[in-house]
Specification:
452 residues, alpha/beta, Rossmann fold, Beta-Lactamase, Alpha-Beta Plaits, 3 domains, five-stranded parallel β-sheet, 16 helices, globular
Length: 452
């Protein structure tokens, strides 16, 4: 049976055996693969063939992976190609540098095939959705351009026709200043949610949800007062029980002294575009396996929370949580069971932590948890409670009930003392405390303290 083609991937690695292994794995999963054994060749191939995704080794002669990624991001042709780094380097600073140069993900060697393919599939899906969104917007912009061009050609026509072509022709209404339906120029009752004859003469306040009605009347009155076209976005329920998003453009109709002020509203259905954008946003912020924040978005949220704590002189703590002997669990029971354990752990944390606490996946079996409004002692107590809950917890899997323990490193911000200007130093401190726990007896918690 022929495997369905999924896209083009460029692999960059100076080790021939690595190239062969990755090529075999990716081709067996439906990808077309090109290879480069150095950074300069990778830049040339990427510019010539524009792959959908790049898997990049870090350590290479002449031009390393970080430098290669930087060059790709400087070129308009290749800047949007996602780059996943694959490296044996596991230090935090190497991973941070990878993301700072434009990488979208970081996989450490030795490679776990299932994990790598899951990440590749996620970023390929995100890339496809982004391209679809760009295509949708380009089509919309082209349509608006055509409409504007038509308006210039028909400028000498009657004023009402000039107003009609200021917006996308999907649903078209004429309103007075108070928001009464004067004319409804469509037969599409399914999009209206009402039969046109039933709403003629009524106010939008009687027909639409209150918030939408007030938004529309406000825009109508601004269009009349300023003479400028107003654009609004709104959603309304439709007869099938769902909701539809619309972009409405409202333009004042020129009048003589004998008529009252009126506007024309042309509404374009943008539901597909809105849903696509929302899906792209979701994929860009969440870890695809566990559903908590992914590393990149967690970093953004963490920086914001840290700055808030410093600005208002509030305590702030975080801890890094690592599952003890998780590799052994994976090797013994398999990755599907390991994935089940990761998901169950996140679900337990979300249930037991405060609503203000924020959890993100740091990488592999490590998770980071923000603890706003908690000082070091409070974070230690909260972490110890969570550690005990996890120790007593059992995950039901196809391999039976699995027990687990965790090691936790804690770092905190002193509300009155000297504090870091970004989240990175704080995460490094928590990582150091975690390392100390893992180097001793595991299944315990430790607070980072200066001088230790």
């Amino acid at each position: 049976m022929t495997t369905m083609y999924k896209g083009n991937i460029l692999i960059v690695d100076d080790m021939a055996e690595n190239l062969k292994l990755l090529m075999r794995i990716l081709e067996s999963n439906g990808y077309r693969v090109e290879v480069a054994d150095n950074g300069l060749e990778a830049v040339v191939l990427a510019q010539a063939h524009l792959p959908d995704l790049i898997l990049m080794d870090v350590n290479m002669p002449d031009l390393d992976g970080f430098g290669t990624c930087s060059r790709l991001k400087e070129d308009e042709r290749t800047r949007d190609i996602p780059v996943i780094f694959i490296s044996a380097l596991d230090a935090v600073e190497d991973k941070v540098r990878a993301f700072n140069t434009g990488g979208v993900d970081y996989i450490t060697k030795p490679i776990q095939i299932e994990e790598m393919m899951a990440r590749v599939e996620t970023h390929m899906t995100l890339q496809r959705l982004s391209l679809q969104l760009q295509t949708t917007n380009q089509r919309l912009e082209a349509h608006i351009h055509e409409l504007t061009h038509s308006q210039e050609q028909l400028h000498e026509r009657e004023s009402r026709l000039s107003a009609f072509i200021n917006a996308l022709p999907s649903l078209l209404y004429i309103f007075d200043e108070q928001g009464h339906y004067l004319e409804i120029l469509t037969d599409n009752a399914g999009m209206l949610g009402e039969i046109p004859d039933d709403i003629q003469g009524r106010s939008v306040r009687d027909v639409l949800p209150e918030s939408v009605a007030e938004l529309m009347i406000s825009a109508i009155q601004r269009a009349i007062a300023t003479g400028q076209t107003q654009t609004i976005e709104y959603k309304i329920p439709v007869p099938d029980g769902g909701e539809r998003w619309f972009e409405g453009r409202i333009a004042k109709i020129e009048k003589d002294d004998s008529t009252k002020d009126q506007v024309v509203l042309l509404a374009a259905d943008i539901t597909e575009r809105t849903q696509l954008y929302q899906e792209v946003q979701r994929l860009a912020t969440l870890d695809p396996l566990t559903g908590c924040y992914n590393r990149r978005y967690f970093h953004v949220v963490a920086d914001q929370e840290l700055q808030r704590a410093i600005r208002y002189h509030r305590p702030f703590a975080l801890f890094i949580l690592d599952i003890d002997h998780f590799k052994r669990l994976n090797d013994t029971y398999g990755h599907p069971v390991g994935d089940k354990v990761l998901c169950a752990l996140v679900e337990l944390c979300q249930q037991k932590l405060r609503s203000t606490d924020i959890i993100g996946r740091y990488g592999g079996d490590e998770f980071v948890i923000l603890m706003p409004e908690l000082d070091a002692q409070g974070a230690l107590q909260a972490g110890e409670r969570l550690r005990k809950l996890i120790e007593e917890f059992r995950v039901t899997t196809t391999a039976g009930d699995i027990s687990l323990t965790v090691s936790i490193g804690v770092a905190s911000v002193n509300a009155e003392g000297e504090n870091p200007d970004s989240i990175d130093p704080l995460m490094n401190r928590a990582d150091e405390a975690l390392y100390a726990v893992k180097s001793s007896n595991r299944n315990s918690i430790k607070l980072w303290q200066d001088g230790e």
